Structure formats: C-alpha cells, structure tokens
Protein: HNH endonuclease
Amino acid sequence: MKGVFDTKPRSGYDDEIAFRYHFPKQYRSDADAMVGDRIVYREPQRNGGRRAYVATAKVLRVFDDMSRPGFAYAAVGEFREFDAPVPFSDNGRYCEADLRKIGDRTRVGAYLQGKSVRTLSEPDFAAIARAGLAETLSPSNAIRLELDEAHVDEPTQALLRLPMEEQERRIEQILMNRKIREAGFRRKVCEAYDNRCAVTGLRIVNGGGKAEAQAAHIWPVAAGGPDVVQNGIALSATVHWLFDRHLISLTDEYRILVSHNKVPSELRVLFEKQMERIHLPPDPRLWPERSYVARHRDIFSSL
Structure:
C-alpha cells in the first residue's frame, strides 16, 4: 500500500529520511501495510517546512525503537529527491483523495492532526511522483541530462516519449530506471555547483546546455549511499575518474587530498594547490555531508 510520511525540520524525531523514518507506535499498523511499497515524504508548513511533497522512497521494513518505548522506525531504500517540491495543493485541488473529499478547506489542517503516516491511492502517488520528476523527464532537458538517443537505450527512450498520463501509469518503471535516476542526480548536483568542477573551477557548457562537469557520488549508491546533493560533487571527467578510484579525497574542511605516488604525473598539475578548499555551492545546506566524505577518505587513506 502506498502512503505519505510527514517529515518536519527540527521535529525531534530520529529521522534520516534517506534511510529511516521515526514515528510514534500509533502509526504502526499503517506503516506495516506500506512495507514493500513506496511512500512520498511531505513537509508540512510547521517548523519552516515547504508545505509540499519533496521525495519518494520504498519502505523496506518496520521495527521497534528499542531505546525509546512507544516509537518505531521504518527503514527505507531507493530514496529519490524530487526535482522540485510538489505543492500540497494546486489551485485549490489537493493531491490526496481523502483531502479532496473535505468540503470545508479550513478543516483540512484539523483532519491531518494525528495522521503524519497515512495511506495514499495509487493514482495520487503516481501523479505526485511524476510531477516531482517533471524537469528530469522534460524533453527540453534530454541533451544536457544525457537522456537523448545517444546515451540511453530504446526501452528508456520509449518511457521518455510517453505522454504524461501514460508516464504516471508507468511510474514504477520510471523510478526503477537507472539512467533516469542518474540524470536526476546529475541535474541537481551540477546545478548546485553552477556546472563548475569543484576542484579545477572549470565551467564549460556546450550549445545543448550540457555541462562538462559530471556528478560524482561521494558514497557510492552500490555501497548504500543515497542519491542526494549532499552525497554528490561536480567534477570534470578526469577528476571524477581519480575521485572514484580514491586517488584524491577531501578533508572535513573540504580541502583536497592527493595520493601523489599514485596519481599519474601528467595529472598532478590539476592539484598544484593541494589543501586549498574546493569550490562549494553557494547554499551551505548543499555542501557535501561530512560523514559521507569521511567514508571516502577512509578508503583513500587505506590504499
């Protein structure tokens, strides 16, 4: 069963929404029903939330919080941030069927009290998820996101050519498609870094809007890392190659570390300013998560 998890900044719960959602046991039966299926995360307006749906994830299992009686966790995977927040309502029409049934809009807030975990219909989930991926799926972005015919196979092209209503019906295939997932991650990371390599500072964008910079994962998805901007860094192709092989890494202050005895001599000119801080996004909330950087550095140090 599909569902909604409300998540608030500074909520006091032990959330790390790319991995786990913390909730009171009053929601346990609804959460149990969602195991094996997908949810959308919504931020209410309280505590500075965006009053919008912001991501989707798959509920893997639900288990008790042994350190805090009366609470439980939902472990999640396949976390996917939306390209942009999807508004809670659009021109007065709510995204959730149960809310559309409420005749008096002033009663919606009261209705949601005590329903931070709630079920969601399949069509409503599909519409929210498709709206959340609108920029990635837009044909106008195909070249810059490498979703054009030169970069994706025919099954992926077929998904991208579908009209929006049919894409909603195929939303599970879209969410599972690796090329589409990677394209969404690339867009968010490169935009956060203004399409500039964080190490060299080089910014090249071709006529189709495609940046020379690539989106590198700090903690690889294959090893459990999430597809979030804070787990990414924009790097030119050569620097990306070195970073993926842990021949370069970062300090906790985002300064460059170089394994000089392993980096090819002709590439060392890229790191003449070793220990200088990399170029970071203007928004500090999008800077690399230090715990992910530490994972990468641990492997760098062990080689």
Observations:
- The chain has a mean pLDDT of 92.
- The chain has eleven helices and twelve strands.
